[in-house]
Amino acid sequence: MTAAGATPRAPARYRGRFAPSPTGPLHFGSLVAALASYADARAAGGEWLVRVEDVDVPRARPGAADAILRDLERLGFEWNGPVWRQSQRMAFYEQALDVLRARDLVYRCACTRAERAGDPVGRVGERIYPGICRNGVRSEHAARRRLAMRVRTPPAAIAFTDRHYGHQQQLLAQDVGDFVVRRSDGLAAYQLAVVVDDAAQGITDVVRGADLLASTPRQLFLQQALALPTPRYLHVPIAIDAHGHKLSKQQGAPPLPVSPLPLLLAAWRFLEQPLPVDMPESVAQFWSWASSHWHPARLPPVLLLPAPAAYNSV
Hints:
Blueprint: E1 15-18, H1 28-43, E2 47-52, H2 64-74, E3 84-85, H3 90-102, E4 106-109, E5 148-151, E6 158-162, E7 166-170, H4 172-175, E8 180-182, H5 190-200, E9 205-209, H6 216-225, E10 232-236, E11 238-240, H7 260-270, H8 283-293, E12 304-306
Parallel strand pairs: 1-2, 2-3, 9-10, 11-12
Antiparallel strand pairs: 4-5, 5-8, 6-7
Helix pairs in contact: 1-7, 1-8, 5-6
């Protein structure tokens, strides 16, 4: 399978991306991920793209995507090319599913989330699907019309080297089981959509929060199954609130304040990057400094870090 929807082009030396979900306004945690990916791209002299991951249509809030883009602009982020929106790319995800079907790597699943709520939690913190429908939908569920699609996970280990956290390895069959690639409402699941879009956009480097570290082996498996290239990965610590929860819209993370420069400096400090002797007086000065002084080796060696009090949950 070629990169679905892509125009053939010579691969860029470095192509990064920021891919927010429009479920609410940009907050400090998402700013940290955006800053890390942008600084890494610009330090490498590369391109930086923005993709709105609105494949989960029911959770997308009206106007949220445009608000996120406005926040990125006022914070001095400059992206290359047009903004992609996953909600406009459903046909390409179906093409990828066709490839998986042809290889007998997917099957229909009639299980509901409520029915699987009691499945054991695996090593990576997710419930392990026990393969109920792997050999066919059970007769008592044959009348169900809303069926998901799951991918058959391999028994072999999937491994990769993260640029910050080093060697990572998962046994997908044991750690997560067969995972969903198309939901029962017909929408593509995140794992499939992100793999198809990273390939289509020619992404060479994925820089994102450590909460997605455990998802990466699933994405590597899909890349291999679809004959798509595998980017390099760099995960960075995620910001947590005073209760130890990841900063998120669902946990009440407040929107970003208006003044951009203190925000950028706070995110830069959060990632333990070096500060200039003479502090920047403008957003442009900050990015000029950051692009030439980004040091991934200095990132904190932890997965979670408390967010500054000013940007914590309300």
